Each structure stands twice: as C-alpha cells, then as structure tokens.
Amino acid sequence: MSETAHTRPVRFRGGGFAPKPNRKIGIVVFVVLILLAEIGTRNGFISALTLPKPSDVLGTFAELYQSGLLWKHLIPSLSRLAVGACLGVIVGVGTGILIGLFSHIRAGLVPLVAAIFPIPKIALLPLFVIWFGIDEGSKYALIAFGTFTPTVVATYGAVDNVDRGLIRMGQSFGLSWMSIVRKIVLPGAMPGILSGLRISLAIAIILLVAAEMLGAEYGIGAYILEAGSLYDLERLFAGVVILSVLGVLVSAAIGLIERRLLNWRV
Amino acid sequence: MEIRLNGITHAYGDTAVLRDISLAVPSGKIVCIVGPSGCGKSTLLRLMGGLEQPSEGEILQMGDAPSGCLNPLTYIFQDFALLPWRSVRGNVSLVLEDHNLPKAEVNRIISDVLARTKLTDFANALPKQLSGGMKQRVAIARALAVNPAVMLMDEPLSALDSQTRELLMDDLIALWTRTPFTAIYVTHNLAEAVRLGHSIVVLSRRPGEIREIVHLDQPLSERHFGDATLEERQHYLWSLMRDEARAADAELLDV
Ligand SMILES: Nc1ncnc2c1ncn2[C@@H]1O[C@H](COP(=O)(O)OP(=O)(O)OP(=O)(O)O)[C@@H](O)[C@H]1O
Ligand SMILES: [Mg+2]
Question: Membrane spanning segments where (chain A) (predicted)?
C-alpha cells in the first residue's frame, strides 16, 4: 500500500460511558439558574407572582435563621425523617433479605409488596392517624411505610444478584448459615441496597411534607404548607430550598458511604 | 482419607448425566477426570463434595480426616470464587473464622499458607488488583488453610493463560511433593491430566460412564514439560476421547 496517500492515525473511538465525578459543574448549574431567576425578576421579565426574587428568598431565610425559627422547624422534621426512614430502611432491608433467601417468604410477600407499592401512602394518612395517633406516631409510620416498599424491592433484587458461586463456595467450606448471610450475601447485595437507598430516602423527604400536613405545629412541611396557603412565595421557596438541600446532603452522604464501602468494585 | 463412589447415577429431570460410576480415590494420590464437554464432570465433583445428592448410589469417605483438618472436602473452583470485598488475607481468614481458633493460630495459618503460595507480599491486596494466576493461588492458599483431607478441583487452571498454567502446575506439584494430598482434578486439558494425575479416569459422553482408567507410575516430580512418555500417554488418552468428543459436539448441536 502506498505510504503517503492512506497513512493516518487510527481514529480514537473508545471514549465516553465512564462518568467521572465533577462537583464544579453541578454548582455552576445551580448558580446560573439562580442568577437567571434573579435577573429576570429584577427587570420585570418574570412577574413577582410567577417567581419570588432569589435575593428575597435569601432574605426570608436569613430572617428565619435569626429568629431561631429555623431550628424550631428543622429539628422536629429531621427527627421525624430519621426515625421514620431508619424504621422503614431497617425493616425493608431485613424483609428484602428474607424474601431473597427463603422461597416460602418470597412466594408470600412478593405479591403483597407489589400490591402495597403503588398505593400513594399519603392516601392512607387518615388511616395512620387512627392506627398510630395524631402525634408523632402517624408521621413516623407514614415515612417508614413509604421507605419500606422501595427498600424491600431493591434489597431482594440485590440479593438475587449475589453471585451464587460465592455462596456455594461458602457452603463448600462449611461456613454457618449466619456467616454466609453476613459475610457473603449482605456485602454482595450492598451495591444494590445502597442505590435503592437513594430512592427510598428521597421518597422519605417527599413524605415528610405529607406527614406534616396533619397537626404539626413545627416542621419544614408545616412551614411550607402554611406559606403556601397564604401565597407567601418567599417563605414557600425558602422551605423548598431547605428540602432540596436536605436531598443533596442525603445523596452526598450515600455517595460517601458508597466510596468507603464499595471501593472493591472494579 | 479415601473417597469411594459406589454405582453413582445422576439425572437432572429427564436428562441422565452420570451412569453407574464406581471409583476409589486412594489417600495421597491425585485422580484426574477427563471427558468431553457436558459429560457430567463438574456434577460428579459436586456430588463428591456433598454440594448435591446423587439420584442413585452412595459416596463414602473412608477413614477419619487427619487431626487439625477443618474442612475435609475442599474445593478449588474454576472461577476462583474469591470475595471481591475482602483482601487476600481476608479471603483466607474467611474459612477459618467459624472455627473459634485462637487469634495467634489464625495468624500463623494465614502467614504459612500465604508463604507457601508465594503471596506474602500481596496479603493486603484486593482481588481486583491481582492477575488471574495470583487469584487462583489465593484460592489454593484458602484451600490449604483448612488443611483438607481431599481437594476437589474443577478445572482450576482453565481460566488462565498457558504460561501461568505451567507455573501453577509446577506450584501444585511442589505442594504435593512437600505434603502429599488426596485430590480429584477435573480438567479438559489432557496435558494437565498426564502431568498431575496418578490415575486418569476417562468418561464417555453424556450420560457419563467410566470408559477407562489409565494409571501413570512415573513420580510427579519427574514429569516435565514435553516428556516423551507423557506425550505418548496423552496421545493414547486423546485416541480414547476423540470419537466421544466429536459425538458430544454433534449432540450439542442437535439441541
Ligand atoms: N443444575 C443443573 N440443572 C440441570 N441440568 C444441569 C445442571 N447442572 C448441569 N446440568 C447438565 O448436566 C450436564 C453435565 O453438566 P456438567 O457441568 O457436570 O458437565 P461438565 O462435564 O462439567 O462439562 P464442562 O466440561 O463443559 O465443564 C450438562 O448437560 C448440563 O446441562
Ligand atoms: Mg464443568
């Protein structure tokens, strides 16, 4: 073949499909969107009824912080979230593992979980109030119930995906049942459980607001609902921002756990 | 410890996989099992180690395991079966943890087997950082850690390249020469069979039956790569297997 006419470097086509973490871009997206909203509201391009000025929202937020009301709303919300989500996740992971390991439990519970999953848990709120009382009990139950189903589904899927060869290896070395579950099944299912947790915890935050619709004096959800009923957009947005920040923090925390716990992944 | 199979027959549903296999695996010897693809070699090994139950026949272990033996029948798997989330050391310690051994004893066993498999420097590496040959050495170290009476090896070297395979065969021979162990070694590779086997069981195509048992008297340490007598035995084995293998291949196409 003639050298000159057809000699060229081989085209690189192996790139992509390997997202790398880059925090800066995420922050830039937020900043640009907020700046656009600020400019738009300032020069009247966006009317005050459509969107509050980001700077006003910030002001409301500062006020909330200075008056000490922020913590008064945040702390009950966080404790509801913590208790409810922990309950839902622990029971969910446990049930998911049982479904993953025992055929009778699987046969009995999988249809039940499938039946419960699509029920909007908010619709059951009155029922929860009767069962668990109007106080904290019904709020915990709502959040726990909402996180339970996605956790179960993610967990038993993850257990199903654990390499059977590894379980067989454990049996062939005479490991006890408990050891196999603790040292092989659980760590093997961990990637799936953690990615399920991202979804369950986001659902928990959504349900927090729903839970506080009923008889909560303090709480982010109560604060947002009150602002909403008064059409106080600044306060509404201040509350929404808190929820978003909460979501970002939870997601970052899971990312951290994944990096620590799953560094063995190729 | 000896293993004896009496009239083992096994079927999965309607598919007969093994038919009337009777075989004795003497203590301190390596028995290789060769046979065409799908003839039930892996199944036979799973039956021997108690991971599955035969449809008919019995599998006996004769004699007691030596003292200090934590897991008499120990497997080495083709795909290594290492826990990816545990280091080399952690993978070995996994099989010791259920035995309530004193900590010093556990550490002694782990250092000993890692030294024997030349892995001491990689004790803290994760499986993803190891080459295929090293992974299989970890699996061998893990098997040695429980001081098995019988090793059950299912194509332990077939996931490796041929150079690594040669090296690991030398390692296995060195380990056996130091302390002879009983082993059943399933392989596709006739060269491996004639290097490692004191006797070689040739199975027919599915349903697997014993066609012939070939005995090799040459000591393991004197068998070398490219040895003429071994070549001759290997040719003989291939002549036994060729028609079976061809028929088995055609059979798979029918399915
Ligand atoms: N769990 C199972 N259920 C049903 N059929 C099985 C099962 N395991 C193996 N078989 C069938 O039994 C036959 C023997 O399988 P086995 O894996 O023992 O063969 P093998 O000799 O090890 O083959 P190879 O040389 O390819 O490893 C095959 O036809 C396979 O499809
Ligand atoms: Mg096989």
Answer: 25-45, 81-102, 109-134, 140-159, 199-224, 236-257
In this structure, are residues A142 and A133 in contact, taking their beta carbons and an 8 Å threshold?
no
Q: What kind of fold does domain B2-66+150-254 have according to CATH? A: Rossmann fold (3.40.50)
pLDDT tens for A203-223 read 999 999 888 877 778 999 999
Domain ranges in chain A are 60-261
pLDDT of residue A256: 93
**Nearest partner of B151 among B110, B185, B193, judged by Cα:** B185
CA–CA gap between residue A154 and residue A136 (Å, rounded): 27
**Assigned fold of A60-261:** MetI-like fold (1.10.3720)
Do residue B83 and residue A187 have CB atoms under 8 angstroms apart? yes
Please give the helix or strand (H or E) that residue B75 lies within, else none. Answer: strand B73-76
pTM to 2 decimal places? 0.84
Smallest Cβ–Cβ distance between B81 and the set A169, A174, A266 belongs to A169
Q: How far is the CA of A177 from the centre of ligand 2 (A)?
A: 26
Residue in chain B nearest A177 by alpha carbon = B98
Q: Do A173 and B94 touch (CB under 8 A)?
A: yes
Ligand 1 near B43 CB (within 6 A) = yes
End-to-end CA distance of chain B: 41
Please tell me what DSSP assigns to residue B26.
-
Dump pLDDT digits (tens) for A91-114. Answer: 999 999 999 999 999 999 999 999
